[in-house]
Amino acid sequence: MEPTPFAERVLDLVERIPPGLVMTYGDIAEYLGEGGPRQVGRVMSHWGGGVPWWRVVRASGLPVQGHEAECLVMWRDEGTPLRGQRADMRQARWDGTTL
Asked: What are the coiled-coil residue ranges (predicted)?
């Protein structure tokens, strides 16, 4: 199944998240001005394997459920600011415009 136009926009944005930074599912929907966190999550679950999926987190900063260990390795490699086992959202959140 081919990605929808919305999915293509989500994936394009995820590819642009700089190393060491993250966006929430809701941040992505808000930035795009369409969909919501669940729709972004659906896109990521179907087509997100080819983009830096570990840079997309839940609102709490927690990594993708079921991929926590791999996500933490990627975050540490990229220097993502952490608070324990989650991204430090005050320091790591990307607004889609800076950098």
From this structure: none
Mean pLDDT by 10 residues, the chain (99 residues): 95 97 98 97 96 97 94 98 96 87
Length of the chain, in residues:
99
Helix (H) or strand (E) holding 24: strand 23-24
Strands (E), 27-93: 56-57, 82-83, 86-87
Q: Which class would CATH give 5-91?
A: mainly alpha
pTM: predicted TM-score of the whole model, two decimal places: 0.94
The whole-angstrom distance between residue 71's C-alpha and the CA centroid of its chain comes to 11
Helix (H, G, I), strand (E, B) or coil at 94: coil
Burial class of residue 45 in the structure, from the number of CB atoms within 10 Å of its CB (0-12 exposed, 13-18 middle, 19+ buried) = exposed
